[in-house]
Amino acid sequence: MLEPPSLDTQAPVQSEVQPETPFSKLGGAPTIAAIVARFYDLMESDPAYGALRAMHAADLAPMRVSLAGFLTGWSGGPRDWFAANPGRCMMSIHKPFTIGADTAGQWAEAMRRAVEGAIEAGEAADPQLAKAMAGVLEELALGMAR
Prior knowledge:
Layout: H1 22-26, H2 29-45, H3 50-54, H4 61-74, H5 80-84, H6 90-94, H7 101-120, H8 127-143
Helix pairs in contact: 2-4, 2-7, 7-8
């Protein structure tokens, strides 16, 4: 009599190998959250960002969530923000606003400081990548100036 094939329940599970993304190299959601928190904290507390702050609603909580979601997907993490905002990008979202060079510069400087703060606090797993990200975001911000 033939024996049925054995079902080895201890066999290794095949897992999909996820490519390393900037999101994962930076430290994932905790790093993005720390950068975004610092960014909005600076915007709210430093008078140097007054014009930038004035462009936003009194309650920054929705913006904190939105920017974290955008940066997460943009850097290669879960793309929930993009799924919830099909066809939208930072340029289209900001089109209704008059963004001058000074305001764009304030945004870029606050983001750079937020990233530097995350690096100094040891929250960014890859400091060089974090600095590069700040540079790219600066270029994007300055590109919105009209």
